[in-house]
Design goal:
Elements (H helix, E strand, L loop, with lengths): L1 E8 L10 H9 L2 E6 L5 H14 L5 E6 L11 H23 L4 E7 L9 H12 L2 E7 L4 H9 L11 E4 L13 E5 L14 E7 L7 E6 H19 L4 E7 L1
Parallel strand pairs: 1-4, 1-5, 2-3, 2-4, 6-7
Antiparallel strand pairs: 7-10, 8-9, 8-10
Helix pairs in contact: 3-4
């Protein structure tokens, strides 16, 4: 079997943040693989539907992939739990691709943000292709990540002249800013780490629901605004039932 899998970055939340290359790829798909995550929210599914409907006239065959549970939030061995989850994903997706992607056809995944930044879809697809024994090519179309959306919303550059920027999961900030680094973008902060570290000399640029009508932005001296961010975040979760947020910590 020969075929192609295309990973299409669709941006951080704004349906208009879809590139011309992404539109062309959507129009050329024979089948769309949709990953339905545990407790998936209708809002995310509806955004995907709107994107496809806006850029495609012909009906698109869709195959749902129900994501395995994510046990590592409570697992004692985090790396092992992630490896197990990825192995389960690879097996399930591989079976679906083998059954649903015909010879010479193009299958696609719509990926939130950018497929190359804090997204496991690319790694899983590359692995399933390697294990398939079939001639399946992979193509990646970049999207606007939440990191770029955050900088644009606050009208700031991510980097300062001659300085590095570190992008890392917020759990690595538990002991404060890394030594020798002045600019850190924190992702996946389910525990509001920014509110527990030493705020001395730090500014924060925080954003939630970036690119959407619900977008919230707060910035300033971390010691001054962190309580405001905590309250805004809690109110947003109460109102919507979920939140996607990220932030840049910048040493003055």
């Amino acid at each position: 079997m020969t075929g192609e899998l295309v990973l299409i970055g669709i941006g951080a939340g704004n349906p208009e943040w879809v590139t011309l290359a992404a539109v062309r790829a959507i129009q050329q798909l024979d089948v769309l693989f949709v990953v339905v995550k545990e407790k998936e929210l209708d809002e995310f599914v509806e955004v995907r539907r709107r994107i496809v409907a806006a850029h495609r006239v012909e009906p698109l065959r869709t195959v749902e992939l129900h994501d395995p549970p994510r046990p590592w939030r409570s697992a004692p061995d985090y790396p092992a739990a992630v490896r197990t989850w990825r192995s389960q994903r690879t097996r399930q997706w591989g079976e679906a691709v083998a059954a649903e992607l015909g010879p010479g056809q193009t299958g696609g995944f719509l990926v939130w943000g950018d497929p190359s930044l804090y997204e496991s879809t690319l790694a899983v697809v590359k692995e399933l292709v390697a294990c398939s024994g079939q001639q399946i090519s992979v193509r990646v179309i970049p999207g606007i990540s939440s990191v770029l959306a955050l900088a644009a919303a606050h009208q700031i550059p991510l980097n300062r002249q001659g300085r590095a920027v570190v992008i890392e999961p917020a759990r690595l900030l538990a002991d404060g800013m890394p030594a020798g680094v002045d600019d850190v973008v924190a992702m996946l902060d389910g525990h509001q780490t920014f509110a527990t570290i030493d705020p001395a000399g730090l500014d924060i640029y925080w954003g939630a629901y970036l690119g959407s009508d619900d977008q919230i932005l707060i910035s300033g001296d971390l010691a001054t605004v962190r309580q405001q961010i905590l309250e805004a975040r809690a109110a947003a979760v109460e109102r919507k039932g979920w939140i996607f947020d990220s932030y840049l910590l910048r040493r003055r």
